[in-house]
Amino acid sequence: MKVYELRNVSYRYPTGEWALRGISMEVERGETLAIVGPNGAGKTTLLKLMDALVMPTEGEILFEGKLITEDTMTDKEFRRKVGFLFQNPDVMLFSATVLEDVAFGPVHLWGKERGLKRAREELRRLGIEKLADRHPYSLSGGEKKKASIACVTAMEPEVLLLDEPTRDLDLRNRNFVLDMIRSWKGERKTVVVVTHDLRLIRLADRVYVVNKEILFEGTPRELFSRPELIERANLDVPEIVRLFHELGINEIPLSVGEAVEILRGLLQR
Amino acid sequence: MGFLEETAREVLEFTTNAVFSERYARRDGLLQRIDPRVKVVSLVVIVATVVSLERIDLILAFYFLALALAVLSRLPVIEFTKRVWVFIPIFTGVIALPSIFMIPGEPAFHLFGLTASREGIRWAVLFTLRVATAVSYAILFTMTSRWNDIVSALASFRIPGMVITITTLTYRYIFLLAKLLLDAMHARRARLAGELGMVESWKEAGKHIGATFIKANALGEDLYYAMLSRGYANEIEPLREFKAGKVDYAFSAFTVLLVVLTFAFTRGLL
User: Fold this and answer.
1) Count of structural domains, chain B
2) Domain that holds residue B62
3) 20 to 30 A from B155, CA-CA: which of A17, A37, A92, A111?
4) What is the ipTM of this complex?
């Protein structure tokens, strides 16, 4: 079943500059989709369009078969179903304490008592209950990211829109985010992630390369088989992929383990 | 270090150490145990009483009471006193000092051809003490209360949700923007050889302020989207609920008794 259907969507900034032109894409329920592209390619705008925060200048977006309109902006059911993790956690943490920030969405959806209970549960589930009474200003970068993830997951969304979730994080916190995405994938939640992180791209079922328009749609393996596309997407080519390109091997591995398997197979032949 | 850089650094240092750590508000002292609603009402009543007093000895008594409350609330008295008196010279200099020479009365001394009157001096001391005492109670309140408690207390007085939301957001982001400003100034300093002249320094400060406004605008837009994305519909419900206990009733009774006794004393009933 299609969760999102974008039909020829374009978006123009108030300055008159086009952010996106003629985007048509579909997102299936339960899939993990990566959107990659250079800076200023309109990726974040695309997520905002999918979260009904801004409306397309041209074209239309359907969510679960229903057209997204201005009314969707304040539709509680839509807000519960779709969670948006912003790139900058500082914009997500605006209350006096972390608990109040995590409870913000649930309280708006379900009222004070149930909302607070849900927020406490989520903080406990993510292992950050000790942050509950802290002011967001006093948190470290990793703690802010975890708290902002809790803000989204406390609403129990079925669809997660993630904008550069691993950016500016150290290894441990990056692994935390990757594990979260793996668990959502395991729960068959729909995940749309804008990223430059190769480890995240590897997790995706499909990848779109966007630079104001769609340049490519396919699997991560297909993307890494096309060096010219990787360059246009302004992505780092993984060393292991570069090695296979240099050796002229058509089969492209997405991990060291896969590379070992391919090389073993070639040697045996 | 330029004026703007120094100001941003001071603001950040003060907020990080004193406000966000909430180290005094988390201590187990007398005022920390009191319901913030009781504290708000008591503060307003005590400050109103202090500013209406004409007698220096009574104002001094209120000032020493504030010091006693600071000790009972486990606040460092020296730091508390410094916080109060750092603002006082500004008031004294701008308002109270000229009045020494402007209020007519019995001459006390002459300075640069001006005559200071005894009435003028008395008024300046009275004014300074009133301000210092009122500020002492306000600082007592803020040092012993956590920000979310203050906000929730205001909400329970039926102050419109929009006002509280704006206050909370201002409080949250003004320091973030100050940090951005300081980072930008450090980045500039890292590329600067030697010192800038005053005019150049102010020009640079203007550029920084302009850039900070642009960043604030972008941040504000994304912040609104982040709220909207989580179901915001132009209203934020305060989450904290308070329940008054014995200590709150006792403190309320103490405040009422203090005010009644003060007025009885000033009217010669005692």
Assistant:
1) 1
2) 3-266
3) A92
4) 0.83
